[in-house]
Amino acid sequence: MAESRLTKMTDPPMKPSRDTTRWFESGPDPILNDFEAAVMIIRIGMASNALSAQFYAGRAALHHKGTAGRTRNIIASLVTAAAVTFESIRLAQEYMPAIRRLASSAGAPPELLKRAGKLCAGKHPASPVLDRARNELGFHWDKKVIARSVQEYGRNQALVWVEVATDDHPVHRLATDVLTHALFPEASTATERATAHQAYFTSMHQIDEAMQLIIELFTAALYGYLREHGATRRVRRQKRKRSTR
């Protein structure tokens, strides 16, 4: 058995990135001994990576120079982040018993598991927005939903359809505003501008909280899995800089 395994290991070992300071590694046994569990961990790892990438994309969107382009990037990245969060929740629901067990073995606090349970049950404040972003706006641009918001703009005395800033990239301004209206209908119905802005920021905070919660849950499950399979923690020692004196 040992020989047959060795003959299969023809590919070179994975190496950490050059600037990595800490990592966990193991042989192929976790995959060979429990393939389904390994697939689960890789799937939640993909989801966690996607969530983290969306988090950083949202931060980068804040630094776009043009106002119209910055707003477009923020709203578009927020919709995508909410949609990815919704799909991550579905993944957590699929594996919840195993994720709970692994996260608990890694020392995840009961409060984290309780909050994650509420999120997966659709009882988080962000749940309606996450559902709307994934199933109506993020990847489908649902005609009926968009039409309702477009109708609202029929009352405007003037419409800005497209804007071009100094970077010469067109921004579909009305499309951005309609998407914002469709994503946050509660805020869009507010009569006072300050009330509307507060509703926007509250919804954004709730989406961010849901993203971070799923990332924490999946990361805790990963550490529990690594501990269960005896993965080795490695630390790269930093080379001391030579004194110029």
Describe this structure in words.
Helices cover 66% and strands 5% of the residues. By secondary structure, the chain is mainly alpha-helical. The protein has one domain (27-231). The strands form two sheets. It has a two-stranded antiparallel sheet. A two-stranded antiparallel sheet has the order 2-3. A hairpin with a 5-residue loop joins strand 2 (163-164) and strand 3. The mean pLDDT is 88.
Short description:
The chain is mostly helical and 245 residues long.
Instruction: Summarize the biggest pleated sheet.
Output: 2 strands, antiparallel
Shape: globular
Q: Please state the structural category.
A: mainly alpha
What is the rounded distance between the termini? Answer: 59 Å
Q: Could you spell the SSE succession in H and E letters?
A: HEHHHHHHEEHHHE
Radius of gyration: 23 Å
- Mean pLDDT across every amino acid position: 88
In terms of DSSP E residues, the strand content is under 5%
> Fraction of residues in helices?
55-70%
Give the strand tally.
Answer: 4
Parts with pLDDT < 50 across at least 5 consecutive residues: none
Question: How are the secondary structure elements laid out?
Answer:
Blueprint: H1 2-8, E1 22-25, H2 29-33, H3 35-61, H4 67-105, H5 110-120, H6 127-137, H7 143-152, E2 163-164, E3 170-171, H8 173-183, H9 185-188, H10 193-228, E4 232-235
Antiparallel strand pairs: 1-4, 2-3
List the defining traits of the structure above:
mainly alpha; two-stranded antiparallel sheet; 245 residues
